[in-house]
Write a structure and sequence with these properties.
It contains 16 helices and 14 strands. With 380 residues, it is of the alpha+beta class.
């Protein structure tokens, strides 16, 4: 273990992928400027993610379902959530996602600059999630505005701004929940209403529980989907051969390629844990009650597992941690995979070429946000 740490290990203002690539070979476990213990290597991240007893997910003072639950509580609520995420449950929505994607891509200009994260990814994410949940289309401007404000607040690291955007999003959720809960019998038969009628332990879900679940399905997923689209578009704009190949590839192959691109540039930056007892990780003694950050972006680029990080979808699939691992693996993996594949296929069908804009290169996001802030492209 290297004892001499950099004086400033704060990731603030840095491209976290590049920064962790520098740190990981010499400093697999670091303690950052705010006292968090940060795990950068694949083996350490996997070990902590699989050890529910020593690494608790109950890290927030706010209700977070299912991310912030442990043990039997997590199992009960995860059973509710997983019912909405199966292939059978999502099958009726795949055509709706395709309709959203085809309509959006057909509306994009050709031969003129456009921005892939906000102009393609964010719009598709909002429309697809609203189609799934049964949310009204007129929420789109409000949701798009919130996504932009949320990323800005996250970048700032200011607690007051973060709290305000969280409150703003809860008010959006309340605008959807309130009329349904006021007269559930007259509510539209959609996924949000089904959730309002659902139960855990034989009782109805509370309003706070409903809000937390819907916040997880939307507040977290909308921004992540937009960032994923930006990463995919940036990669394919730089690899015309791969883009051409994907036009003829099977769904399974497209899914593997998407997962590998996101492994190389994972916008799902991290998850948090807290130690329930003293632990030793990679030679570092860490006390009970310590805040732990599992950096998926770094683990997914660990040279000990992925060598020189060459693009190899089949070879790297088994160790890919884009959606996490263990009991807390992302419940929406299948949903996200379907939506990303559908969006990518529609974009490639609508354009013969994806090209970067001369003189306006992609702009990386900075910690704690991953991927790209802007990906200016033109469709040919």
């Amino acid at each position: 273990m290297i004892d001499h740490m950099p004086e400033d290990v704060s990731p603030a203002g840095r491209d976290l992928r590049a920064y962790t690539d520098q740190l990981r070979p010499l400093h697999p476990v670091i303690r950052n400027n705010v006292g968090d213990w940060v795990l950068l290597r694949h083996a350490d991240v996997v070990a902590a993610a699989l050890d529910d007893e020593r690494f608790s997910s109950a890290v927030s003072r706010h209700l977070q379902i299912p991310n912030g639950l442990d043990g039997a509580d997590h199992t009960r609520f995860r059973a509710v959530i997983d019912r909405y995420m199966t292939q059978d449950a999502l099958a009726p929505f795949l055509q709706k996602f395709e309709d959203v994607a085809v309509q959006l891509m057909a509306s994009l200009p050709h031969g003129k600059p456009l921005e892939a994260v906000g102009g393609i990814g964010a719009v598709f994410a909002v429309r697809a999630q609203c189609a799934w949940l049964g949310w009204p289309a007129d929420l789109e401007p409000r949701l798009l505005g919130w996504m932009e404000a949320n990323h800005a607040a996250t970048r700032s690291g200011e607690d007051q701004r973060t709290a305000q955007v969280a409150a703003d999003f809860d008010s959006i959720i309340d605008s959807v929940l309130a009329p349904r809960l006021a007269d559930i019998d007259a509510a539209p038969d959609d996924v949000t209403t089904q959730l309002c009628r659902d139960t855990v332990d034989g009782r109805p879900l509370s309003r706070a529980e409903l809000t937390s679940i819907l916040r997880n399905w939307t507040g977290g997923d909308l921004g992540s989907m937009a960032l994923c689209v930006g990463v995919l578009v940036a990669h394919l704009a730089g690899d015309a051969k791969l883009a051409g190949h994907l036009r003829q590839a099977s769904d399974a192959e497209v899914d593997r390629v998407i997962d590998e691109i996101l492994r190389l540039d994972d916008p799902f930056i991290s998850n948090r844990r807290v130690t329930t007892c003293p632990v030793q990780i990679n030679g570092r003694e860490i006390p009970a009650g310590a805040r732990i950050k599992l950096i998926w972006t770094s683990a997914n680029r660990d040279e000990a597992v992925f060598g020189e990080n060459n693009f190899a979808p089949d070879t790297n699939a088994a160790a890919n941690l884009v959606y996490g691992i263990g009991r807390h693996v992302c419940p929406g993996r299948y949903l996200a995979t379907c939506q990303l594949r559908i969006a990518l296929r529609a974009l490639l069908a609508a354009a013969e070429r994806l090209e970067f804009v001369a003189g306006d290169p992609p702009e990386r996001e900075v910690s704690p946000v991953g991927g790209y802030r802007r990906v200016p492209i033109m469709l040919g």
